[in-house]
Amino acid sequence: MQWLLVIGIIVLLYSSLVGLLNILFPEKHLDWDNINTDVLNFPETFTWGVATAAHQIEGHNVNNWTQFEDRENKESSGSACDHWNRWQDDHNLLVELGVSSYRFSIEWSRIEPNQGDWNEDAIQVYSDMIDSLISKGIEPMITLHHFSHPIWFEEKGGFYQQQNISYFVDYCSRIFPYFSDRVNKWCTVNEPDVFSIMGYHMGMFPPGLRSPLKAIRVMKNVMVAHGEVYHRLKHLNPNSYVGLAKNVTIFDPYRRWNLLHWLTTFALNYIWNGAIISALSRGKMYGKSVTKVKNSADFIGLNYYTHVLTSPFLPQTTEIDLPSRSHETVTEFGYPMYAEGLERATKWLNKLAIPIEITENGVADGEDSLRPTHLKRHLWVIADLIAKGVDIRSYYHWSLMDNFEWAEGYSMRFGLYHVDYENQQRTLRNSGKTYQQIISRHNK
Ligand code: GAL
Q1: Which residue, judged by its Cα, is nearest atom 10 of ligand 1?
Q2: Residue 20 contacts residue 259 (beta carbons within 8 Å)
Q3: Would you write out the chain's pLDDT as a tens digit for each of its 444 residues?
Q4: What is the Å distance from ligand 1's center to 398 Cα?
Q5: Whole-angstrom distance, CA of residue 234 vs CA of residue 315
Q6: Checking CA distances to 144, which of 31, 92, 108, 311 falls within 20 to 30 Å?
Q7: How many beta carbons lie within 10 A of that of residue 281, not counting itself?
Q8: Could you tell me if the CB of 398 is within 6 A of ligand 1?
Q9: Among 272, 365, 406, which is best to mutate for testing ligand 1, by the most ligand atoms less than 8 A from CB?
Q10: How far, in Å, is the centroid of ligand 1 from the Cα of 429?
């Protein structure tokens, strides 16, 4: 009979522990049928924007990505949206939408194609872009590293080698003064988490490696690089507003009664979110000191897309569909549509006590059947957070137009504008019109 007692105690302890975890870490779901997402109240000062990245739209870049596309026989980015030749027209799309800010990235491989080889013509084009935006009343926000960099930097080992950080820091310090008289908002790096894990653990971004330890090392080096760049830029212009874009993915246990799923959830939340927040708030990451990273951001950019339901058998490639709750709508990317997670994402970021800029949020939806709802739900959550006192200053929708979606190539369409890649024609989608109306209502 004694063993029955032992089993009873174990069951009791296990269920109390799991019960407690369920209370402490709830997976919030709202009843969207009873929420009117047409009522959105934002402060007048709120910044409405859209975001893009150089390699995804410019066309004909020569960088670590094109090298990877060729080597791995991936879909080639090719002409992309031919934005390098059509940027003037594309700026008119921004005007048509009515946005007051535009987040884009400048391509290191265009500016410094060979080490020390400084391409003044390319710099001039970016400078013209900035002037054009300003003349249209649109505030530029520049990202200095959005997943792509020159081949020479990749061949030296990229961010895997700590000694290479200085190349990036030097490049940033040198390019910044060209634009800093006109550009105030800067993102040093885009998503250190996605960049390192997709490239070094999932093997789906260059250099296509599959080693969790390498991914962690790269993530740390990218954060150190961010810290260095932050201090350099602030030294050059103390008034500039410098931060980074952090992808916050929420990990939830797939089976909420399974302790192993909880353990995986905690581990992944720490690796993906906690380590970077800890670097910025405490100057510590994976047990190592990253002192210059502490307090190295005037704002934190939030890129929010989804939550991931976690178990120890999580797929090791994004090509396998992720699990979802039965009531959740699954998007073309395989992500559950989970706007509630944006609120949970801000809880991570609030630890930093600095302004939050939503630097990316959007959905792959070629038919545009989900995007209007997706957009309004996320904006509803943001408006609600602002009303509760969370300091969120902007929203940059991903993306202005369909573009080259990294590992997924052209199959995933994230644009408010549809792009016909045969003739490069852009067409405003219904979701684009929805966004346009929301912006115009608030800018009156
Ligand atoms: C982000 C990335 C963007 C875009 C988006 C959509 O991780 O920063 O460049 O690709 O995902 O998947």
Answers
A1: 405
A2: no
A3: 789 999 999 999 999 999 999 999 999 999 999 999 999 999 999 999 999 999 999 999 999 999 999 999 999 999 999 999 999 999 999 999 999 999 999 999 999 999 999 999 999 999 999 999 999 999 999 999 999 999 999 999 999 999 999 999 999 999 999 999 999 999 999 999 999 999 999 999 999 999 999 999 999 999 999 999 999 999 999 999 999 999 999 999 999 999 999 999 999 999 999 999 999 999 999 999 998 999 999 999 999 999 999 998 876 666 567 899 999 999 999 999 999 999 999 999 999 999 999 999 999 999 999 999 999 999 999 999 999 999 999 999 999 999 999 999 999 999 999 999 999 999 999 999 999 999 999 986
A4: 8
A5: 41
A6: 92
A7: 16
A8: yes
A9: 406
A10: 20
Q: Give phi and psi for 252, each to the nearest 5.
A: -125, 145
Q: Is the CB of 408 under 6 A from ligand 1?
A: no
Q: Which atom of ligand 1 is nearest to the CA of 406?
A: 10
Radius of gyration from C-alpha coordinates of the chain: 22
Cis peptide before 150 (omega within 30 of 0): no
CA of 6 to the centre of ligand 1 (A): 51
Ligand 1 center to 256 CA (angstroms): 29
Domain ranges in the chain are 42-442
- Whether 65 is in the pocket of ligand 1, judged by its Cβ within 6 Å, is no
Task: Return the DSSP state at 25.
Answer: S
CATH of the structural domain 42-442, one choice from 3.40.190.10, 3.20.20.80, 3.40.50.1580, 1.10.10.410: 3.20.20.80
The verdict on pTM exceeding 0.85 is yes
CA distance 417 to 93: 9
